[in-house]
Amino acid sequence: MSNPALHSLSGHFSLSGHFSLSDHFDLIIVGAGPAGISTALHLAQIAPEMVQRTLILEKAHHPRPKLCGGGLLPDAEVILNSLGLDSSDVPHYDVDWAHFDFGGKGFRMRAEKKGSFAFRTIRRYEFDAWLADQARQRGFHIQENTSVKRVSLNGSEVVLETDQGEYRATVVVGADGSKSVVRRLVVPQESTHTARLLEIVTEPRPEASFHIQANSYFDFLYVPQGILGYSWDFPAIEKGRPVRVRGIYDSNVYPLKTDISLRDALADEIGLHGYQIEEYELQGHPLRWFEAKSALSAAHVLLVGDAAGADALFGEGISIALGYGRFAAQAIQQAFAKQEFSFRDYKRSILRSEMGRSLQRRTWLAKTYYRFRSRAIQALVWRRLGWLVEWVMQTFIIGWAKR
Ligand SMILES: Cc1cc2nc3c(=O)[nH]c(=O)nc-3n(C[C@H](O)[C@H](O)[C@H](O)COP(=O)(O)OP(=O)(O)OC[C@H]3O[C@@H](n4cnc5c(N)ncnc54)[C@H](O)[C@@H]3O)c2cc1C
Fold first, then answer.
1. Bridge-partner residues for 122, per DSSP?
2. From the DSSP assignment, how many helices (H) and strands (E) are in the chain?
3. For the CA of 37, the nearest atom of ligand 1
4. Which domains does the chain have, with CATH numbers?
5. Comparing C-alpha atoms, which of 58, 105, 85, 114 is closest to residue 221?
6. Could you give the CA distance from residue 358 to residue 344 in angstroms, rounded to a whole number?
7. How far is the CA of 107 from the centre of ligand 1 (A)?
8. How confident is the model over 278-320, as pLDDT tens digits?
9. Could you report the per-residue pLDDT of 263-280, keeping only the tens digit for each?
10. What distance in angstroms lies between residue 306's CA and the mean position of ligand 1's atoms?
11. Is 74 near ligand 1, meaning CB less than 6 Å away?
12. Distance separating alpha carbons of residues 109 and 32, to the nearest angstrom
């Protein structure tokens, strides 16, 4: 056994490093992304006795690929700092300005008025592997290469069927992303929509593009054509070399017939900067956005991160995933203290929090703003009303972790 803390567990490791069948744990966290690891790290802070009674199951092996722009807002940094962590320990790029445009023209801002950069970009395979290491250093065991296939409730135990056998726990946290398997137990019949995203990573071409290398760009050019989101272009560092991470986000808050496919819109946009889409590996992934009426827990089960719901307006989810961890850890600590596992108050604690309020506003804003699809209104918003957009963002959207 590699981890002495695990001696107290009923299970034992096989030669492959996995626990044996039918092990029972107090807590199993499904998914070792930012939401799952944040839940673990917050638990280690407020209920260190839980570390030895927790197992984290992860279907991949860190460092694992994760499609993401890697834009890390200051809210993420506030939460990481509260856990004694600093994202500058990971390779990163400090983005000078964030531009919000319609057809290449608009305004620019920084997330923090006094800040010297707009936000930071990281590559997720590095960031998530670093976070997972922090959990291991605090004594958590992450069992990788274990995919959860089905989750069911058997009396007061949650049963997890995986490709490595069956596991049982008193409490399960679904931190398994937008396609969450755990969510199916909490919300068996889904009617909410998910956003659609495509992404490519390119080399910088300063000679062909009017985008400045140090800056990031959001362009809402395709809203009039029914893509209810934006194209993005972020600078980042990949294996020590500068790259641009580009993509397109369709919130899908209203599932519309679009005049242009997501791929063609991205091809069109990057074409303006001297790139041919055929030359790059194009990847897509959905993103579940937050819907206040949707359940976030069931008896013995909690959802966090994308499995619960992220930002509908921009698809920002890393800081949110980290933020969920704090509420889940508090709910778990209280549940074991009272031996009461209904998790009835979990959703209320999120809705009443600054993060929950920000999420509700983002969904409302997405549904309101993306109704206005005329070119004239889009041009007016981004080219003339930048001061108003910035005020709304600073006051109602970002900065929730500090309030
Ligand atoms: C193209 C794209 C670009 C994005 N850009 C940004 C951005 O720039 N900034 C930002 O803040 N957000 C961005 N997001 C959103 C952000 O990536 C997510 O909100 C964030 O990753 C959510 O973290 P999570 O821990 O909830 O889920 P994930 O990061 O998806 O982690 C889930 C983990 O669970 C594991 N898992 C999944 N299923 C199982 C299973 N059945 N059994 C066991 N393990 C399982 C996965 O392997 C993974 O490690 C982007 C999303 C996409 C798709």
1. 92
2. 10, 18
3. 25
4. 4-66+126-191+290-366 (3.50.50.60), 90-119+193-288+372-397 (3.30.9)
5. 105
6. 21
7. 29
8. 999 999 999 999 999 999 999 999 999 999 999 999 999 999 9
9. 999 999 999 999 999 999
10. 7
11. no
12. 33
